[in-house]
Design brief:
- By secondary structure, this protein is α+β, with helices and mostly antiparallel strands.
- The chain has a single domain, classed as chitin-binding protein cbp21 (Coagulation Factor XIII, Chain A, domain 1).
- Helices cover 13% and strands 29% of the residues.
- The strands form 2 sheets. Strands 2, 3, 5, 6, 8 and 9 form a 6-stranded mixed sheet that branches. A 3-stranded antiparallel sheet has the order 1-4-7, with no helix packed on it.
- A hairpin with a 4-residue loop joins β8 and β9.
- It is globular, with a radius of gyration of 19 Å.
- The relative contact order is 0.22.
Length: 195
């Protein structure tokens, strides 16, 4: 009997430090084409602050664009810990080359598989100045792609293929939103593209 209590106490004592040693609950981000968070996580872009260790953690309030993060904090999901994602870096974020009308596949990588409401994809308006932070006024607020998920749980990766809208030139930004079904939050991802 005494042995059982000793073993139980030892297991409990080991579990506490392990719990604190594990990383914070993680979630997901766009890995291809590389989002700002993915570029920071891969150290392609430096001076990214905490996001370099947590590219999957850009979580903020859901309901975008009617609600959600405030203007100028959209790429960081309104989370000041990841404010480096909102910094336009003088328009110097690395871009993925695209052509209007082409098919482009966005792949999300998940580290926590939440029940999901939807995925939505927005593009900056013609004339967007890549030296400025993302605001609602700089985005077309009608998504160019919406993928309903109806509360299903995501697998470890999900890909969505969209036709890239026309009428854009130069450096533009895709804002992608993964809306969670059973919490008040969503995950935000900004991907820089060049037409």
């Amino acid at each position: 009997m005494r042995t059982r209590h000793i073993v139980g106490a030892a297991v409990a004592a080991l579990a506490i430090p392990l719990t604190f040693a594990l990383p914070a609950q993680s979630h997901g981000y766009i890995s291809t084409p590389p989002s700002r968070a993915a570029l920071c996580g891969a150290e392609v872009v430096t001076d990214c602050g905490e996001i370099q260790w947590e590219p999957q953690s850009v979580e903020g309030p859901k309901g975008f664009p009617a609600a959600g993060p405030s203007d100028g904090t959209i790429c960081a999901g309104g989370n000041s810990r990841f404010a480096e994602l909102d910094d336009p870096r003088g328009g110097a974020w690395p871009t993925t080359a695209v052509t209007a009308g082409q098919q482009l596949t966005f792949t999300w990588t998940f580290t926590a598989r939440h029940a999901t409401t939807s995925f939505t994809y927005y593009l900056t308006k013609p004339g967007y100045d890549a030296r400025q932070p993302i605001t609602r006024s700089s985005l077309e607020l009608t998504p160019f792609l919406t993928v309903p998920y109806n509360g299903r749980q995501v697998p470890s990766t999900v890909s969505h293929t969209a036709t890239i809208p026309s009428g854009r030139t130069g450096h533009q930004v895709v804002v992608s939103v993964w809306e969670i079904a059973d919490t008040g939050n969503a995950f935000y991802s900004c991907t820089d593209v060049r037409f």
